[in-house]
């Protein structure tokens, strides 16, 4: 079944859905009808929408057949990172909600726009051959040599990495290069309009700048015909009829260039406004740090006779030191690093949840995000089995899978797999599957593909992060007595006891030993037996690891073998 088919017949539930993507989708639909339709047409559209007749509405009102444009930007002066992925993920999530709301009748398009004509102002810390980049400083990124030696330019290298990653996730998008867009003439009309309305743009921009910058500011950044650098040069003369500006080149020579055809690019706020105007963008999400810039760019759009897009502001990602993720610093996680340790769906889930709250983007968030995603998928499938379509639309897993969630998740959590790897010293998936197959008779990597992938992620994560940080400790007197009592309980279990029965026995031992809160009992088990402060549901761990092996693990801990090792 295609994604389009899965989004049919959901408009009624979508109107009632309360998750943030549907809130944005409804605002976007209001925008489309307000800008494209007359009062009488809006009344007709509202009636047809209420009846779920979106195809009829589009056939009757041709203005609705024009694609709704979602857009996100990428700064090509640095390597793509997970914040970059979020730039494409959030509009895609809103786009899916919009498609469900409108029965997929109104066409949509996502533009991923690379700012690869920007001058390279800062040399990234996380690339080779930085001396070579230093020689090309201030040139457009697509004119800077590739420090990796793989593409015709640094901009082309970064664009290729971005596109390969977006393609691997199955994003449906149109890629646009700033360099190609300027040089092809796609922006010529709006560039000439800015030249004509130069004073109006300056009146908006100058109050936002410091005194020194105001003295020489121009919305146009000329490309020096001599050095090829993007110059912060004042516009000394304008010729609207010829479509040119005059500026002082680096050597002071007065130089005249057209504002069209890629001879200049725009300062970033006017550039944003020009892009929204020329591409008729309807929706763009951006970080909270850009709220003021959005307001300024909106004013420029209106000065150019356009209509600003529907804006959605999200909080920023932080690294392990609560510093903002920066592509030039290379802090935080890379795309490849997350995918070494976590399922792609867990990454999309992490981007989806609480977009208005700042979140850490570091290795330690991966296990929790993975398990939360699995829990949400299980909850969605329970609602699906009950026929509750409305509840599905507010479930994060529905949005993670763009309206087509799988009917099956993983029968084993990621945290449980991590601890199984630890306790069993399983260095390969084959060893891990020997335990899994006993816990889930008949299960194979082929029948449980998601679980098989999670097993690989768990091994990588354990080897790189858990194992080096393991710190076993000896039990105190009360803990030792409780663990000895637990061994007796485990030995007395009937053959084939399930995880719930085992968990009940573990609870009873902790209560009898007087642990208060009971959480302290489980912390002791994790610290003494697994060398860490947290772990999975202990009954499930014993069930999959095996009662006999758990007893042996406890005996080794009580004998001091784990601490010694």
**Helix content range of the residues, please?**
40-55%
What gross morphology would you assign?
globular
Please state the oligomeric state of the protein chains shown. single chain
From the N-terminal CA to the C-terminal CA, the straight-line distance is 53 Å
**Strands, total number:** 12
The largest sheet has its strands arranged as 3-2-1-9-10
Instruction: Name the structural class.
Output: alpha/beta
Going by CATH, the architecture of the largest domain would be 3-Layer(aba) Sandwich
Largest sheet: 5 strands, parallel
* CATH fold-type name of the largest domain: Rossmann fold
Total number of domains: 4
**CATH domain class name of the largest domain:** Alpha Beta
CATH superfamily of the largest domain: HUPs
Number of DSSP helical runs: 28
What is the strand content?
A: 5-15%
Low-pLDDT segments, ≥5 res: 1-5
The averaged pLDDT comes out at 92
Provide the gyration radius in Å: 29 Å
